[in-house]
Write a structure and sequence with these properties.
single chain, about 140 residues, alpha/beta, Nucleotidyltransferase, domain 5, 4 helices, globular
């Protein structure tokens, strides 16, 4: 079974999945948010396609470790994912993952248009990789 990472945003949901062994994360898609029904239908399809058994949702904490309004929204989304998809959902501190993804793409000289298309799934991959690395380090 694989693990899926989600980077939940106002307009998109970045999606990444692990390999079968849980060592590496790959960004697979950026879901353009339309309605909750369509968004969850697409996530269900991806869960089935990749044989996902666990989901990790990025939790944007403030730099001092507290949870602000955006974090509360992500917690509510994680609860909804767990209820609708019927899989265990973990929250993972995602501080600076989008900034790290942006920096990596800038260093790779990726155009602004292409960066915009891949930034969310790359952030999801960084969230998932961080989670798996911490789990494998135990």
């Amino acid at each position: 079974m694989r693990t899926m990472g989600l980077d939940y945003g106002d307009k998109t949901i970045g999606v990444a999945v692990s390999d079968e062994l849980g060592w590496t994360a790959q960004g697979v898609e950026t879901v353009r948010r339309t309605t909750a029904e369509r968004d969850f239908a697409r996530l269900k399809e991806l869960v089935a396609e990749f044989n996902v058994g666990e989901i990790v949702v990025g939790l944007p904490k403030n730099m001092n470790g507290t949870i602000g309004p955006r974090g509360e929204i992500c917690i509510a989304f994680a609860r909804e994912v767990e209820a609708i998809l019927g899989l265990p959902v973990r929250l993972w501190d995602e501080r600076l993952t989008t900034a790290a993804a942006q920096r990596t793409l800038l260093e790779a000289d990726v155009s602004r248009k292409k960066r915009k298309a891949v930034i969310d799934k790359m952030a999801a991959a960084l969230i998932l990789q961080g989670y798996m690395d911490s789990k494998n380090a135990r």
